[in-house]
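Fig. S4 source data, part A: sequence.
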Amino acid sequence: MKLFKQAIVTVVLLGVAATACNRNDKAEGEKNNLKIVKGLYTFGPEMKSITLCEDTREFWVADSVKRLELSYSNLGFEKPYEPVYVELEGYFTKTDTATVAADFDSTLVVTKVIKISKEIPDGPCAQ
């Protein structure tokens, strides 16, 4: 019986390890697919999204470097949800709908903040 329990524990641990490795491989693959994106970033208590300049698609934003939200806050808005122009480096991944509204099927994971500005340029990102 003791040998049987050890075998079950071993199988479970191997399954957990394989799943973790698979997730890490997937994350590494996504990180290797970095893109520079330009768009309008909106931040508030219930919203962290970017609308791309090139085609107006909207994505949830995950600030993996913890610089985007800080930079937005440092712009000194009196109220949330004011859009700002951003240029970001990051990668796209499937949205975890357990934590994010189902409206967003993809998330931009930010790895670097290149530019953030209250001034929205003329052209595709003009309001």
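Fig. S4 source data, part B ends here. The radius of gyration is 20 Å.
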